[in-house]
Amino acid sequence: MSPGTDTTADVIPGPAAGGRASSAPLLGRDAEPTLFELSQPGRRSWQLRTTGVPEVPLDDLVPADHRRTTPAPLAEVSERDLVAHFTRLSHRQFSVDLGAYPLGSCTMKYNPKICDAVAGLPGLADVHPGAPVSTIQGWLELLVELEEALCEVTGMAAATLQPAAGAAGELTGLLLMRAWHEAQGRQRTKVIIPDSAHGTNPASVTLGGYTTVTVPSDDRGCVDLAALRAVLDDDVAGIMLTNPNTLGLFEEDIEAIAAAVHEVGGLLYYDGANLNAILGVVRPGDMGFDIVHLNLHKTFATPHGGGGPGAGPVAVSARLTPFLPGPRAVRLPGPDGPAYGWATPDRSIGRIHSWHGNALVLARALTYLLVHGSDGLRQVAQLAVLNANWLRHRLSATYDVPYDRPCMHECVLSATSLKKATGVRALDVAKRLLESGFHAPTVYFPLIVDEALMLEPTETESLQTLEALASALEEIAADAGTEGGHDRAAGAPHATPVRRVDEARAARQLVPTFDARR
Amino acid sequence: MQVPDTLRYTSDHEWARADGGRVRVGITDYAQDALGDVVFVGLPEVGTAVEAGAVLGEVESTKSVSEIYSPLAGTVVAVNSALGDAPEQLNADPYGEGWMVEIEPADPAAFEGLLDAAGYRELTAE
User: Fold this and answer.
1) Are A80 and A190 found together in one domain?
2) What pLDDT is recorded for position A8?
3) For the stretch A7-34, what's the b/e string if a residue is b when 16 or more beta carbons lie within 10 angstroms of its beta carbon?
4) What is the pLDDT of residues A160-191, one digit of tens each?
5) How many domains does chain A have?
6) Inter-chain contact A508–B39, Cβ cutoff 8 Å?
């Protein structure tokens, strides 16, 4: 607006005024209408072109008694309104591309755009997964190279690239464990997990047909070795660990743990959720692990958190290779014929995903690996650890640090003292942080830390961003103790398009669909 | 934080009240505060035999899912099925409307072995 403009004239309110431009809400506080509310009878976002394919009577395709008698209640909107709707929603969303996302345990690192560029190449993107082997040699080479690179990083012998994400990788690992013990002649019943484990671990144990046995952490936040030894017997199929663990601490006794579990014939499963901390520095295979899952969508910077799909390859030691899911892309022997093909291991547990997994995610991950090289990957881990320790040290003056020793790629703080002094809880701190333009940290996990705030800055945030994040968390704590501070925190966030949501009510009265006709 | 003198407690934050041969069980005020807003309560079936320290049910809050352990060995003779529609009672009235199960103890004398209010206060004072 120029200085000479009449400020009393009608102006379209800007985003700060929370107003509307034209007839649709823009960036204000007004709720975005649902597609059903935008719906007008007869509107369409698509047209089917005339293809010349002869029409087939519907009765020939789907018998009448299998068809619905009333039209499905779908929203009817134009392409223009549809795109506007989702674009407006995307403007209200926080994403890795917008700013720092210190959501502990999730490794929400920046995804380099070159990976998207490679995954978008028509030679990769426009290929049918069932295409003849001779026409997809490049794809097969990519898959073989990725498998070899992942095995090199983890110190394992072979891998399946099929699992769709971390939990699918865990189930695959448990099924491999079952297959292994079955082949030894006797199935076992129990799998051990530490009390700091990711919640998916006990769920996978149950889904894999085993019973969970929990071992406590010691006062340094690591597996209590004596407690572990006390529960080890020949009914233990294995142990699931993540190292560094969910407290962001390295399990220093890992060699003793591996020896003890192997001594009773159990296997060691590595939950790769925290692999970002040790890339190029130490390998799970060298620590004694038999099965390793990797979250490509975390460690190797492929999209996740609503931007997925993910990928959770599982790498194994040589003795477990015959049980891997198939088919796997393999190098073919001999000078004649194609160099690459498909092969299914002798005693394979079968498929774990249709076709070959989320293949374009795999292409992104290989790109990330090749762009960094081995020195670059080591730097990823070093910077991730440095950033987390910088935050831990800086914030230890403001928040409790339950395990005050050098951490790995993430640090766990606690708002216990803040809560005692001001009534402001970890959840309130997380909600206030949104107002400063950062994503919230993970809260109330690991479960063994009261009022936990789990920060994982990742390697991609600059010192200036870390400084701003730490300052924001310090200001939140300082404000909590001032006049009206508790209420400001309890009502946060105040400045976001969507305010505090009632999570308890949402869970108690679960309504997973919107029905405009109610 | 309320710790009624008339009740007995476990170190896992359950309370127990002896009532004419039956023992009523729930979670303490301390436990409900630590869990936060409860959104789901899983209860055993009437007639289930339980050991002391065995899993009796589960409580899911917006923070986590926690297992509830039986203070005593015995048989489940009643469950508070009203919690199915009103899990928030665990937060609002943990020692009253938020009770979870009633157990007929195998050994009524075992009740006396549970923590008393002073012992539980000491446990949660840290």
Assistant:
1) no
2) 41
3) eeeeeeeeeeeebeeeeebbebeeebee
4) 999 999 999 999 999 999 999 999 999 999 99
5) 2
6) yes
Q: What is the mean pLDDT of residues A284-300?
A: 96
Torsion angle defined by CA atoms of residues A462, A467, A469 and A474, in that order, rounded to the nearest 10 degrees: 170
Contacts of B126 in chain A (CB under 8 A): none
Residues 6+ apart with CB under 8 A from A139: A124, A127, A329, A359
Structure confidence by residue, pLDDT tens digits, A101-152: 999 999 999 999 999 999 999 999 999 999 999 999 999 999 999 999 999 9
Report whether pLDDT(A1) > 60: no
Residues of B in contact with A445 (CB under 8 A): 64
Q: How confident is the model at residue A10 (pLDDT cuts 50, 70, 90)?
A: very low
Task: Count A/B contacts: CB-CB distance under 8 Å.
Answer: 26
Mutation target to probe the A interface, by most A beta carbons within 10 A, among B1, B11, B13, B39 is B39
**Domain closes at, from A321, A355, A389:** A355
The whole-angstrom separation of Cα B53 and Cα B30 is 19
- Alpha carbon separation from B21 to B17, B43, B75, B103, B104 (Å, rounded): 10, 21, 12, 9, 7
> What tokens appear for A301 in the block?
């910077």
DSSP H/E element including B119? helix B117-124
Residue numbers in B near A450 (CB within 8 A): 34
Q: Are strands A314-316 and A291-294 parallel, antiparallel or unpaired?
A: antiparallel
Domain that holds residue A8: 1-54+72-92
Does A185 share its domain with A325?
Answer: yes
Identify whether the C-beta of residue A385 lies closer than 8 Å to the C-beta of residue A275: no
- What residues have CB less than 8 Å from B58, skipping those under 6 apart? B40, B41, B42, B65, B66, B67, B68
The confidence score (pLDDT) of residue A131 equals 94
Q: pTM, whole model, 2 decimals? A: 0.87
* Residue A282 located in a structural domain: yes
Please give the pLDDT value at position A6. 41
Question: Is the pLDDT at A17 greater than 80, yes or no?
Answer: no
> Is residue A179 domain-shared with residue A87, that is, in the same domain?
no
Q: Say if A363 falls within a structural domain.
A: no
CATH for the B8-106 domain, from 2.40.50.100, 2.60.40.10, 3.40.50.620, 3.10.20.30: 2.40.50.100
Instruction: Among A355, A389, A417, identify where a domain stops.
Output: A355
pLDDT for A5 beyond 60: no
